[in-house]
Structures
1.
Amino acid sequence: MRQGMVIDLERCIGCHACEVACEFENGTPPGIAWTRVFMREDGGFPDTRRFFMPTLCMHCKHPACVEVCPTGASYQREDGVVLVDHDKCIGCKACMIACPYDARYFDEGGDYPGMPALTERPGGESNKLIGTVEKCTFCVHRLEKGEEPVCVIVCPTVARVFGDLDNPESAVSRLIKERHGFQIHEELGREPSVYYLSAKSIMLESSPQKDRV
Amino acid sequence: MASDNSLPSKGKSVASSQKPTWIKSHCQMCFNACGILVEVKDGIPTKILGDPDDPNTKGRLCARGLSGLTKLYDPLRVRAPLIRTNPQKGIGIDPKWREASWEEALDFVGEKLKKVREENPNKLIYLSWPGEKYIQAQAWGHAFGTKNVGFFFSGASNRCANPNHMVGMLTHGALVEFPDLDYCNYLILMGTEMGFGAHQSFVQLAREIADARARGMKLVVVDPRLSVGAGKADEWLPIRPGTDLALFLSMIYLLIHEYKVYDSRFLKGSTNAPYLLDSSGHYIRDPKTGKPIVWDLKERAKKPFDDPSIKDPALEGEYKVRDIQCAPAFQFLKEHVKQYTPEWAARVTSIPEEQIRRVTKELAESAQIGAFITIEGHEYPLRPAAIISYKGLQAHTNGGIAMLAQEIVLILLGALDVPGGVLSKSMDPRRFGGQPESLATGKDGLIQPQATGWQFFTPFKFPPQRLDLGEYCPLAFDLGHLVPLVTLDPKKYGFDYEPEALVIYHSNPLNNCGDLGIMTEALKKLELVVDITPYLDETCDFVDVVLPESSYLERYNLINFTYDKVGLQVAQPITTTIYKTKEGIDILTELAERANFLYGKSGWNDALNRTLALSKPFMLDLRQKYTWEEILDIQAKCHSNGQRSLSWYKQYGNDFRPMMAEEKYLIYKDAKLPIYFSMVKEAGEKLEENLNKYKIRENLGLEFNLRQYTAVPYWEPIPDSEDSEYDLYLIGYQSSLTTYADMASNSFIMEIAERDPYQLAVTVNKQTAQRRGIKDGDMVWVESRVAKAEARVKLSQGIHPEVIAISGGYGRWINYPVAKDKGVVYTKFFPIDLGYSGMIGGSMEAAVRVRVHRKIQ
């Protein structure tokens, strides 16, 4: 069993529901979102196209972050989910440098203006995450209850699908096969668990304009 | 039970060893009423997710809905009634509020309203638009007796699609139109982000449009800007603003003259295309019955339109009836559109002729005229081609004419209210839990438009009563944006009274209407401005009394806002009220009681009975006072024949069932749809008669665009399109981050907006900018004839060279750090004037001419 995700770039409309859901689910401070949405525009007027690309921790099969972690705080489960033990993490940030997907964040604390802290974070009142590095956990606390990550269940266009990459009959496996799912930076050999399905509006031409939105 | 003292405090998260409870409700961040589940720990709401039991959204939810808790904990929340102590009113001038008890505030306002009502109820302007209960809330104004009810002092005219409502209803009973995505193969979206960020049923349509595209539906988007939809579409037609009308006119030309593709069978059987017209464009009528006449080709005879012996009514040709030269309406239209060639349209719209031809051809071919499909055992015409337009096309002076043309294209294809085509969401009792109704037959065999609480063909009256000039503009639902202008000098427009009071219920007119000079002067002129709102906003600088409504997470509701379901959906308090706030409808009830129009016939209860379509034994007793909660319980029981109470809905969330095929398709039954809008022409003729009779032009110097009251659409440009001094168009657009919602305190949304390259900037075409020496990231002045503002430029290849664009929802000057002075508000650039108003439906020109120059540092 290997937990994995497929993101259909044809369906994504860049609405940020996934980002906001993740923030409330995991109580991240302002400035940190474990899933982010990028936008890319290509072409010249009037032949302009645009697509949106959500990214998150790739839960790599061969995670660079785990390799470089000096304390063993970053580890990988049997089902492929890569996690951080915040009791062991000393916040050295080596993993942040090692990650090719920019998917890790150093937590300095802080609350959203005007909002009380509503989400219980590990450690409760003492918030163990501050001073450590954190990232997407595939909502492992939900997986344990048989529920999918919140980014998957809130997406209005059903752009994200979650499931077992080791099961050829699972929705994720079938989508990867039928729609030629690809990984980002496949050449680095990290073997991400997150695959993407292409979109008609992806033009790989010159003068790209890409932004995190 | 949370109270002010036990709100979770900063830094300390809500830890709980208890299992959380989840409460079903519906979102009210916009007005689409998506089902939500709210997590509650120790009585404190901590998270919102979608409700998987909502068959429309299937548990999905947008960024606004997910951040809805910001509305509960919003620091701008009003915690008790506020009464101004500073008599000075102005932008940024502290009202110096003092807190008052509910009794004092309600007595004070109620007494004043009572006095106004006794003198002349029209002196009250009631701007009421509380999302999913706006029809119910507006009924309060009708019970009060004022004609000034609706989006008055604001305007669905500039940010919404009044023409869609009026023309859609006159054509096929459609308040709003939706594509039949189960079968549609070709969808053209014009000036709307339906399914991509805005419009109604957004979360549902986002999924349904994605599904339809996955099965092969082609998507074409017409928009001056590369909207989200345009960026992902199969084709983007970057149109010059306000010229969609020209595109439609040439589509009609192509269908009739070149491709000769149109649904003759449908035109002959279900429209007024065969009705004979004389040379002045009036129906030839049977002298005995007064019925319009058609020419039966088979029997070479004239017959009344509904004669069962008609074999084949002529669509073309010229005939003589009683010595009068006449021709079928279709022939009339055919002759009329000869001038609107695609070559002409290409010049006007700036869309290449080849593209206009190809898209029209593809649309026509996709319509599969002549095809049938069997659904649920019934046979229907299959026409899998649809055009949906909204604000971008309609918020122009010619928006109503464009809408007439749009409906004609769809009628030619036979694509209204059939599988694959354009469905209508009407204003029938289904909204409040009743069953869908088919359309009745009205005058001249055409459909009878009907809508709860709204009026078609406002009767002429002099002196006028409606401050939006409704009596002078009989086919406008509202020209609410004109109300502040008229308020400044009602005599000039022929009024014999001065407005005195304004009650606002869920609107922020200073931020959403137009010219701030006119708006602020008009607000200052009124003696009493009352605001029923949960939050302080920019308009509050001019308000006398704030009556705090509870946030949506503390309120009840029952509504059906869907386009394709029957049943009701609940909203319920997730927590008892945190502050001393009340449900808005209860506030209205208290005021109605004090102003003497709660009880008895024509009172507030009576109005609610009619609005909610309540009937014995479940209706309001006209002698009793009810809470909103009690009213909803009665509504629930009424529409379920006693089977379901409000408690049932609180537990189960909704009882939606899909509409059956026979409830969705061919809802016009035997009534005919207009390809020739005789009722519009007649309304104009009647208006002209009255304007002459009362010498409106001579005595008041007022001119009205009578030409717009036309049975056939014609080309008319939007104002100032030749203005060389203000040489660019400014348009506003919607985004899923802010549409329909107030994000002033929403730090989750604002964080995303600040990162997005477009949201807080003004989008400018790259080539246009380079020619003017403007670089990406420069600060520029954007200036219209009535406003000026600084903005940061974002260059783009995704916008028409003559257009700059600003996203709606920003540029707030409310004193709250999250949103203050971030981005630009585009509405303030709009001039407020009769000359910038459209007559058919009631639109405001929302493509305003501006000039842009770099700010010298």
2.
Amino acid sequence: MLTKRIVPCLDIKNGRTVKGVNFVNLRDAGDPIELAKQYAEIGADELVFLDIAATLENRGTTLEMVLKVAEQVNIPFTVGGGISSVKHVDALLQSGADKVSINSSAVNNPDLINELSQKFGNQCIVVAIDAKQINGNWKVHLAGGTIPTDLDLFDWAKEVEQRGAGEILFTSMDNDGTKAGFATEALTKLSEVVNIPIIASGGAGSINHFEDAFTKGKADAALAASVFHFGEIPIPKLKQELKKQGIPVRL
Amino acid sequence: MNVVIIDYGAGNIKSIQFALKRLGVDALLSSDVNIIKAADKVIFPGVGEASSAMKKLKESGLDTIIPKLQQPVLGICLGMQLMCNYSEEGKTEGLGIFNTDVKQFNNTVKVPQMGWNTISNLKSSLFDTIIDNDFMYMVHSYYAEPCDEMIATTNYQLDYASALQKDNFYGVQFHPEKSSKAGEQLLKNFLGL
């Protein structure tokens, strides 16, 4: 049976993890490779690296990091942040990234999704969507959630699927950082409108929240950062509890 | 050991090279027929679309070389699918090594299948010390139909062939290079064949 995925997300700046981590047995908490190896070891199913300071200048640094992760880590990983061209995606995949995630650039230039999916296959093209509710309607936001658009979350999700996205990474800005749970209703609706895998993001605070994302929200994967980095929810314990609740996970 | 990964411009082959390196083997990427023929072990990778990958194989003449190889050959993901008779993806004639066809998952399940699924009914030394129902990482929209050459099955929409073997030819639908310890063990077993 296909299992639900648990996905830690690492924020990267100039090839180093930021926001701090508080992980036992790490010699260097800022080293993304060491952290990635540790996560792979304890049962993370996949990793996301988000380049939060993505600029042309530091692109080389990110590529070097991607290469090192690919060399040393034996689970799949996605790289996102500031990706806007076929050439850049090619360089990331050539360096060993399994998937790339695009966000603002997909909204600004939707044809990019078609181009990437035709050239590299839809399995490696993740479209990240940040959205929040405005007057009860889920609206897509850009540039790390700072720029609102008129795009409806569900319309946009359908469009990215049609254009060739292989997966959607949905972050609810209303839930992100609250530790009050994922946006399960929006997740359920997303699963109804598209037939590609959905990664839930934003709001993880307890083991029950993950359970809700998978059962009520029908998500295929759940992403979180701080609850994993600070050991608030140890991944082995999370997966054991999910299994007890009858949710298929890889143990 | 002389391990060659066939480089025909299809997909992320660096990950396979790195996975072998973690096992202490420096594999060579090559599209050169003589280098491929002389290898102890050959890995035939592939990610992307079947008909364009097949076109690339034909352009380099590899489509006639691969079925004649004598040493152990491991097809991974699209590599495995291209070793079958026919794929619905792009209506592609395959290399005809495995006597089965490749079909698309229907929309009763999410497509692509993405993530960790179990492999069962393991039947080959390729799976030595790997337990029934161990997990492998899968990313695919098409599957190989069950057949006599099936050495592992996985369930998604239906039971399909997640690994195949005929003589010296092996094929796996999953990505051993991304499948943690179970995947490493499989690659180790292949290198030991």
